[in-house]
Request: fold
Amino acid sequence: MNGDGDETRSPWWRGAVVYQIYPRSFLDTSGDGVGDLRGIISRLDHLARLGVDAIWISPFYRSPMADFGYDVSDYCDVDPIFGTLEDADRLIAAAHDRGLRVLVDWVPNHTSDRHPWFVDSRSSRDAVRRDWYFWRDGREDGPPNNWWAVFGGPAWTYDDRTGQWYLHLFLPQQPDLNWGNPEVVASMHDVLRFWLDRGVDGFRIDVAHLIGKDPALPDQPAALGQLDRVGIHNDPRTHLLLRGIRRVVDSYPGERVTVGEVNLHETSAIRAYYGQRDELHMAFNFLPLSVEWTAAAWRDLIETVERELGPGAWPTWVLSNHDTRRHRTRLGGDERRARAAAVLLLTLRGTPFMYQGEELGLEDADVPEERRVDPGGRDGCRAPIPWTPERGHGWPVEDPWLPWPPEAGRRSVEAERDDPGSMFHLYRALLIERRSSPALSQGEIRVEPSPGGILAYERRAGDDVRQVLVSFADRELDVPLEHGWTASVRSAGEAPWDGRLQPNEAVVLRPR
Ligand code: NOJ
Reply:
């Protein structure tokens, strides 16, 4: 059994909706203004009520926090700012009690520079773990090659102690692990087992496509200039490594799953990381984060995904995450568009990944210069979640580590739960509809011809069928559709279906 199901049985994650928790900003219980694992445990009921199937938690391991947890100094312990290992165990158990699966974030490409492995590696040229990272002599005019780091500057830092340079595709505090060394592979597999043994249902794999590297570390073409590696690195060695990772994960019972970040821009290139159902179970596809808000652009995106992933590679959909502007902000702050986008996310063929707070329609916080902390300028989308309308919004401090998002009171969980017309209730209705419809959760998709400004598609599984219509227009539009359909969910409100789409409205129709 390869954990990817077969033609007759589908694994759980194909029908699931995954909710991303960014733990620093979910909820604080300790009073230090930073969210923690106990905060997550205390609000799992919100997620169960919302109706998602699984959570993915961004890193909560020991970390100096140069990249807010994506610089790990101990993969097998919880950073005290987030709690303890016992809290992690309690969180996994409490989620499972509510029927929620748990994915943890695994960061294989790099460690923190404070990780004991790197501390040893940098200590001398003869260190036991010298070869666990990439150490090279410089060239006459500087670093060993012309690669650039994601947060700016060369991807190499010179270390006085041993007179060599080390590679880091991100910050200098995030040295790249050398996956060409079998001891690195074995140690990182042990990390997977550590969490699998604790009962996690799978992993979100950070920049999964970066781990394979040609040990010669050749220059990138000069024409690419200072373009960092993340969008272009595509080394065949990665596939062999992913197959090893897959074997570890699939050796556990219960359809454990991997979803990997593959930040390449071509869907056909991303397809390769699913292998022959023996590499990633799913790969993120970030194209929707930059697609234009037009029917033509979305139609093209959906058709490209269908064509290029083909039947063997299950798609993923994402509108927002902790690395990019929230989609409502991207869509000009327009709530109608954000609502229509929610319908797209939850009715397209594939596994949707929601980001905490999108069920509230949050926008990015406006973070004043003196409060910006992220080296990648991503503070706005990481603003804390408001739980209640009053000051402090349910956090034990009034002013957490980042400022509140706009309209935090009106958009708090409590306020939206009490308002049947809120974004929260739209997500809830869509999740209920999706759960009750095999067509929506697992079925085929067929993009239909439609008038300008409208995207139309059908989802079908056996006798179960849904039509989805999305208007990208700023005026009301008539939809020529034969009779016999009734609205299950309308993004603009609960009015019965009358054959007209409001501006930027999306509707899910079922046979009457
Ligand atoms: C992708 C993560 O999502 C991002 O937050 C992080 O900065 C980089 N990988 C480096 O780990």
In short: DSSP finds 13 helices and 20 strands in the chain. The radius of gyration is 23 Å. The first strand starts at residue 18 and ends at 21.
